[in-house]
Amino acid sequence: MNNRRGSLLVISGPSGIGKGTVCAELMKRCERLCFSISCTTRPMRPGDEEGVTYFFKTEEEFDRMIREDRFLEYAGMYGKRYGTPRAFVQEKMEAGMDVLLDIETQGALQVMQKAKGDVTSVFLLPPSMQELHSRLIGRGTETPEKAEMRFKSAYNEVDLARQYDFVIVNDRLEETVEAVKAILEASHYRPERAYTHIDALKKEETNP
Q1: Can you tell me the distance from the alpha carbon of 40 to that of 18, in angstroms, rounded to the nearest whole number?
Q2: Is residue 153 classed exposed, middle or buried when 0-12, 13-18 and 19+ CB atoms within 10 A define those classes?
Q3: Which of 84, 119, 136, 155 shows a CA-CA span of 20 to 30 A to 189?
Q4: What DSSP designation does 113 have?
Q5: 44 SS3 class
């Protein structure tokens, strides 16, 4: 059985949980791990590179990809649209690469529905809601009002953790990263990945 086909790893969690830091550490430690590159309808900015930052699409091209079911998930944000292209993810996985998708919960649930058997999902929880509030306020990347809005939405998001394959309390970075790394390695041995080999074994038994 060939277990070298890559896996799709989805990581979600509320704002301020530290997904970016966890993903950055994973990229350092997992040689065959790459980030998924999204399609977007937003204009290119200085420093952007096609196929590296994003795959830049016109509104018409994006609409066509939706009609042709070429996204694992897509959503609108600030008047522009973003989507995870199915073909890119599949090509990387067929080449033996694991694909990392750091994504919000609604998009993750779409991916989990469309990529059954290929996706392994991880949800990061805070040690406490008080700790999450401190992280959101302390990072200082947005107004206090916006941080409070994100904090309130976190109460709904954490309940969605029940729909993920694995849930990790992100209390200590080192432990979290090592746990996600172990989950990624184990994902190559999901039962669904052995179905073809199981069928081949059954044929051997009936047709010696």
Answers
A1: 24
A2: middle
A3: 84
A4: H
A5: coil
Instruction: At 149, list the tokens.
Output: 């809005």
Q: What is the dihedral of CA 54, 55, 61, 64, to 10 degrees?
A: -90
Angle at 117 between CA 158 and CA 178, to 5 degrees: 55
Q: Which residues contact 184 (CB under 8 A, 6 or more apart)?
A: 7, 9, 26, 30, 33, 98, 120
Q: How far apart are CA 152 and CA 168, in angstroms?
A: 21
24-63: per-residue pLDDT in tens? Answer: 999 999 999 999 999 999 999 999 999 999 999 999 999 9
Polymer length of the chain: 208
Q: What would the pLDDT profile of 63-109 be if each residue is shown by its tens digit?
A: 999 999 999 999 987 678 999 999 999 999 999 999 999 999 999 99
Helix H or strand E encompassing 46: none
- Please, what are the domains in the chain? 8-36+98-206 (3.40.50.300)
44 phi and psi, to 5 degrees?
-65, 145
